[in-house]
Amino acid sequence: MSIRDRLPNADDDVTCIGCGASVPRSGAREYDKHGDRWRRDGKRFEYLCKPCHRDCDHQPRDGLEATLVEAGAGEVDRARFLRRYFDLVTGSAGDQ
After folding, report:
1. d(CA 50, CA 63)
2. Measured between alpha carbons, how far is residue 51 from residues 9, 46, 56 in Å?
3. Largest CB tally within 10 Å, which of 5, 16, 40, 88?
4. Would you put residue 9 in left (φ > 0), alpha (ψ -120 to 50) or beta?
5. Residue 31 — left, alpha, or beta (φ > 0 → left; ψ -120 to 50 → alpha)?
6. What mean pLDDT is reported for the chain?
7. Would the CA dihedral through 43, 49, 50, 52 be positive or negative?
8. List of the chain residues with pLDDT < 70
9. Rounded CA gap, 83 and 14, in Å?
10. CA-CA distances (angstroms) from residue 37 to 32, 41, 42, 71, 82?
């Protein structure tokens, strides 16, 4: 018996954060924005379909998620997010 067989709702559909496709959870890959999918307590995972997961860059991303959160990813409009992100990664002090 695999761990997926023991998970509740293992075959519920999930939405891929990469392309928006709806896929069975058993056919998706977990994405942990904190970078540690093995530490599971208190976390809510997002999912990628297999093609989007294959297209991901699987290199270390030290500090990327914190920068995205600080820039307002998913919380502010695209133009404001891009301005904030640019300012954070270049050290600029643009308007927020």
Report:
1. 25
2. 22, 15, 9
3. 16
4. left
5. beta
6. 81
7. negative
8. 1-11, 34-37, 57-60, 93-96
9. 31
10. 5, 10, 12, 23, 27
Q: Global pTM?
A: 0.49
3-state secondary structure at position 19: coil
Which DSSP string do the residues of 35-58 spell out, in sequence order? Answer: S-TT--TT---EEEEHHHHHHS--
Q: Which two tokens mark 39?
A: 């530490």
Q: Which residue has the tokens 């959160």?
A: 69
What are the two backbone dihedrals, phi and then psi, of residue 5, each rounded to the nearest 5 degrees? -65, -25
69-96 confidence digits (pLDDT tens):
999 998 999 999 999 999 998 988 655 4
